[in-house]
Amino acid sequence: MSPSRKGAEGKGQETNASPVQIVPLWGPEIKYVLLDMDGTLLDKYFDDYFWEHLVPETYAEKHGITFGRAKEELMKKYKRHEGTLNWTDIDFWSRELDLDIPALKEQIRHLIEVHPHVEDFLKLLKRHRKKVFIVTNAHFKVLDLKMKKTNIGRYFDACITSFEMGYPKEDLRFWQKAQERLGFQKEKTLFIDDTEEILKTARRFGIRYIVFKARATSKKKPKPSKDFLTITDFNELCNESI
Questions:
Q1: Which of 44, 115, 193, 222 has an alpha carbon 20 to 30 Å from 5's alpha carbon atom?
Q2: pTM above the 0.70 mark?
């Protein structure tokens, strides 16, 4: 989903991790790298265009209303499900809107693009034998579509979705289950995401190294975080002397 979102209140054990100003990525301090998908690895323009233009356009045609009215109605519907598993559940939205959401995504799959220097970064991670995982709120069907389109799935040791964990990433319980599934050590883990509320939850869980990806979409000017170490491009992390 693309509209700006607020994090859900997580439950479970919290840990206050000390903030860091540098990321010793290529040394022994970091063994595990957790990466968000949409907006972090992939250009979020695909998702923004889909939910803010294509879906309203199709919804308007179906109901015989203007694009503006359709978008207004849909934004209200989206808002009601922020911070829940429904937020990115394409099967839920197919039922809710009576539209074939997977088919609509296939129509514009050509808009799915990897951010610059992502593949260079992923190759370096594998060269340095880091354990690399995708952790995403995206629906597993969307994850599959995007991995097939981009062909970057080969760089990951595993990919997990909020649907597998039973909670969105804004919830501490997601991280508890993710750790059980992936076996990462919090103090040796780097997590990169383009959503600050999710980063705050990960920090509360105790993940040691956290980075905010400011350029989520190629169509908007990036805004740095006031709370987290910020990058706009993955080439900022590709210096092996860091």
A1: 115
A2: yes
